[in-house]
């Protein structure tokens, strides 16, 4: 048995649980006799610059608390990655201590389907768009070396694509998701036996439609005159104005209205966390 943990760079540095478990890693009753930590370091935490996310140069510096060896490796060099992983496995087997592999790489697209990284990281993403993808880079090298032929490479890719396509097709046959199996307890204090929430009295928090419309209109306008606004953003504001007019809300506008209504009562709202500055959600 080998304990392997896969981390993101921002989480590795930013989530206290990583630092805490390193401190448990060598305690007599808790040790796993060494875990291999693989950090997929794409040098950006969702949309956050490393300099805004941590105080140390490397995300892996928290591992220094137990003097774990840390290997920084260029993920564009698959053979170097394989070599480093072999060394890490050997270290763990020999000394029964934690070891960290820092895969220094990049994220080609946004964090998810909705995220456009050029908004927040234009310089970085101009560089990324120029990069040759690692698969092509390595395939070209192997073909140039004569290690594989172009035909062999294409056959391997086709074989892998087929596995993915078949699994995707099979996934559509799943008609029922047994979510209850994942819950460790049915929370009897909160729900009736049939799963409905028990009634809980709550003070009324509603506000007038007039005030909601006002907040919606403010949330879909630009506060500065003659301000050149990004076309992607102006589309969002226009859609928001239309929603307000049609008496509709989405998650973002509902959140905006909640904050706005609290501000209207003279209560300060402080947002802190990963993506509040750009208002991702």
TrEMBL record:
Q: Name one Pfam family in it.
A: E1_dh
Which GO terms are recorded in the biological process aspect for this UniProt protein? tricarboxylic acid cycle
Molecular functions per Gene Ontology: oxoglutarate dehydrogenase (succinyl-transferring) activity; thiamine pyrophosphate binding
Q: Which cofactor does it need?
A: thiamine diphosphate
Annotated signal sequence is none
**Domain Dehydrogenase E1 component stretches:** 2-179
Q: Which keywords label this protein?
A: Oxidoreductase, Thiamine pyrophosphate, Transit peptide
PANTHER family in alphabetical order: 2-OXOGLUTARATE DEHYDROGENASE (PTHR23152), 2-OXOGLUTARATE DEHYDROGENASE-LIKE, MITOCHONDRIAL (PTHR23152:SF5)
* Family membership noted in the UniProt record: Belongs to the alpha-ketoglutarate dehydrogenase family.
The protein depicted here goes by the name OGDHL protein
**Organism source for this protein?**
Melospiza melodia
Organism ancestry: Eukaryota, Metazoa, Chordata, Craniata, Vertebrata
């Amino acid at each position: 048995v080998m304990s392997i943990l896969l981390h993101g760079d921002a989480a590795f540095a930013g989530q206290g649980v990583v630092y805490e478990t390193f401190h448990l890693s060598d305690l007599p009753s808790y040790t796993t006799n060494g875990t291999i930590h693989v950090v997929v370091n794409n040098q950006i935490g969702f949309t956050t610059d490393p300099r805004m996310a941590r105080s140390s140069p490397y995300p892996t510096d928290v591992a220094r608390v137990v003097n774990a060896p840390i290997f920084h490796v260029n993920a564009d060099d698959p053979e170097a990655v394989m070599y480093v992983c072999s060394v890490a496995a050997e270290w763990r087997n020999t000394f029964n201590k934690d070891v960290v592999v820092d895969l220094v790489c990049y994220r080609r697209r946004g964090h998810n389907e909705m995220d456009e990284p050029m908004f927040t990281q234009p310089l970085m993403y101009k560089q990324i768009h120029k990069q040759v993808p690692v698969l092509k880079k390595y395939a070209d090298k192997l073909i140039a070396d004569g290690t594989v032929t172009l035909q062999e490479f294409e056959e391997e890719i086709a074989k892998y694509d087929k596995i993915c396509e078949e699994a995707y097709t099979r996934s559509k046959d799943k008609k029922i998701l047994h979510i209850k199996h994942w819950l460790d307890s049915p929370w009897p204090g909160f729900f009736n036996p049939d799963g409905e929430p028990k009634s809980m009295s709550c003070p009324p928090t509603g506000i007038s439609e007039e005030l909601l419309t006002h907040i919606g209109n403010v949330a879909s306008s630009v506060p500065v005159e003659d301000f050149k606004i990004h076309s992607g953003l102006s589309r969002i504001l226009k859609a928001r104005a239309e929603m307000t007019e049609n008496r509709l809300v989405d998650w973002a506008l509902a959140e905006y209205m909640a904050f706005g209504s609290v501000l209207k009562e003279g209560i300060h709202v402080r947002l802190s966390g990963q993506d509040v500055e750009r208002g991702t959600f």
